[in-house]
User: Which sequence fits this backbone?
């Protein structure tokens, strides 16, 4: 019971500071706990929602929110998010884990490369 709370605190701090949402860490954590892929992904959104609201409040307090850009991105994100559960219903857990791994590795490499060029 305490491990998920501590893990959530660490992921919450990392998510709030990086803007990555935390799902990229929550999903593997839940998979390690034995949850099915579909349940792990769905459950991670509870975490992301709560951390996002809390983070937004903190960023609004210090004046670091571009409402127009955020709103436009949200419109596209809301529309695109409707496809995710349908896609996940039609692929195997193994395929999801492989694709998710490739996305994480690719993102890590991209961030690493970008940090060297700036």
Assistant:
């Amino acid at each position: 019971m305490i491990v998920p709370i501590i893990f959530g605190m660490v992921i919450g701090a990392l998510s709030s500071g990086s803007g990555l949402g935390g799902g990229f860490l929550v999903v593997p954590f839940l998979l390690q706990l034995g949850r099915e892929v579909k349940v792990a992904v769905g459950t991670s959104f509870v975490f992301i929602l709560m951390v996002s609201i809390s983070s937004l409040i903190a960023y609004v307090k210090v004046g670091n929110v571009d409402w127009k850009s955020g709103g436009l991105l949200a419109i596209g994100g809301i529309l695109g998010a409707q496809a995710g559960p349908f896609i996940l219903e039609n692929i195997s857990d193994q395929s999801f884990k492989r694709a998710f791994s490739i996305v994480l590795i690719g993102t890590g490499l991209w961030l690493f490369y970008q940090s060297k060029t700036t």
